[in-house]
Design a protein that fits this description.
Helices cover 59% and strands 10% of the residues. The chain is of the alpha/beta class and 293 residues long. The chain folds into three domains: 60 residues, Multidrug-efflux Transporter Regulator, Chain: A, Domain 2; 78 residues, Methyltransferase, Methionine Synthase (B12-binding Domains), Chain A, domain 1; 135 residues, Rossmann fold, CATH 3.40.50.280. The protein has a five-stranded parallel sheet, with helices on both faces. A two-stranded antiparallel sheet has the order 1-2. A hairpin with a 5-residue loop joins β1 and β2. α4 runs parallel beside α6. The longest helix is centred in the middle third of the chain and has 22 residues. The chain is flat.
Amino acid sequence: MCGVSSATLRAWERRYGVPSPARTASAYRLYSEDDVAVIKKMRDYVNGGVAAAEAARMVLETAAAHAPAPAGGGDAFAEASERIVGAVLRFDPDGLEAEVNRALSLGPAVTIFERALGPALERVGDLWHEGKITVAQEHLASQVLGATLLHFLRLAQPGEGGRRALLAAFAEEDHVLGLFGVGLRFCSWGFRSIVLGPRTPPAAIARAVEALAPDVVGLTVTVPPPPPRARELVDAYADACRDAVWIVGGAGAEALRPFLEARGGLVASTEITAARAQVESALHARRRRKDAG
């Protein structure tokens, strides 16, 4: 129908999330008319000389702009997020699974995370801090949403041989689900994302950098440690990252800015386009230093 080989379709889906077909219980892909339209648009861009990664970005942005709205109007992603939070409040595991699965039909993985699953996670975290839900409810949400995000990340990974992003949480930091969302963004920028998880000390980062030679190391911190410990950790992470570009995000990153910038680290912008520009600019500067050296 589209004049695109099955191997190319699989590669586009794996690397860029284009298309993102539904699946049967046996994992067979089910391509909708919308999927076919997306594939044809991607094909036309690539045949016209646009790089596949850039073509995928253009297709995904168009799909996000034309995402289906609820029958009564409004934002389909926001309503999906509200339904997910509602299932958590009701402590309804089956309902939560159903609402998450329902959200998967709304568009590309990155868009689903940024506009539905990510906001739901933030709201659940706020409710827990406010004492309005229990630890058990928060853990239920983390388990279900975390499994979905991990699945998204596996599908979105580009092929071997490209750039790599190593992602982890600061030592003593337990909140890591947002890292999967960061990983999805890096995948959409052409990086293979490797997520290490919570409470990753500098020594573990150093070993991973030595073994994997990532281009970028991304760290997250929600609650910054006190100044003496903060400086100590930042210095240790800076040493562990060696010559890799390293960037820190999360609610606690801004408080660490003086220490990070003193050691060549970046504080991630909260605006996605700006964050990408930070990373690409730092990588370009690193290449120039290597070429000059």
